[in-house]
User: Fold this.
Amino acid sequence: MYKNFGRKAVALVVSLGIFSHLHAAETEDENLIALQQQWESLSESKGNEALATALNTETVNQPLIEWLLTQDADRVEELANDGVEDFPQSAQLWYLRGRIHANQAMNSVFSALSHAKKSLKSFEQAAQLQPQELTYLRGVFSFYQGAPSMAGGSTEKAIDVAKSMIAIDARKGYQSLVSLGFNKSLPEVQTWIDEAQAQLGELPEYPYMQGMMLQQEERFAEAAVLLSQAVANEQTDEDSQSFKLKALYQIGRTSVLAEQYSLAAQQSLEQYIEAEPAGQDMPSMSWATLRLAQLHAYNNQSEQAVSLLASIDTQDDERLEDEIKKLKRKL
Assistant:
């Protein structure tokens, strides 16, 4: 049951980057390194105290939070629980507590429900303390969308939160609302897209999201058409460029899933690799290179496929390594 919570949460992260990395300024990077060193070198209690104090701020230090979530989960849980006791008005510490308990719920069996309830309470507290901060509202939204109902998940409440997000940032709010509509197959989704585009204009995220849903349904030809529409969108702002780049990768992946070579798919992957996009919500160069190798294999171009495989850095990604082994056996 709680594995479903994990899969849905991951799908949401991938599609919208809800917990995406925010690039820090150079001074923030220096501060982050110093805090990491304190965490690792000070005694556990002192390290926790240093991090809790650093997170007792009005602004969101997303790089620090993301780094903490890669550390020992039990220690980060202790930091977050102690932090909200010491600084009960710190929305950021409540948000960290929500994130770590959500992670613990996904990785637990017997205590999953307890962690999930603590996660929701924490996200709601963070949003209550800073109701205009989109990061905290996204935490509440992602929980309501991804969690099973017995753990507090609720489509209706997710809709309400997304609509409150629209009042703060219309584009981000509609992204969440439309994503929810597709993920839950809600009949209102087309109405929400029409509302968004009437207010914001034609945007690439809507054909991208719809294309991704069709890809999951194995309606590959239709998915490729919509993903191509996302790439062709004329918007040039940073958010649009991000969706267009992800659509390039997914055009290639769609062709691979369909087990069919397509020149358009090959060119899309080549364009994606040439762009070298960065960001936690972007497919890695290694995966893009594998997808390109797979396409060459489907086109009986074994030499090109072998050459591409030799260039891949697997970075201890077991799933990537398995996919490479499978392709090598076919060549």
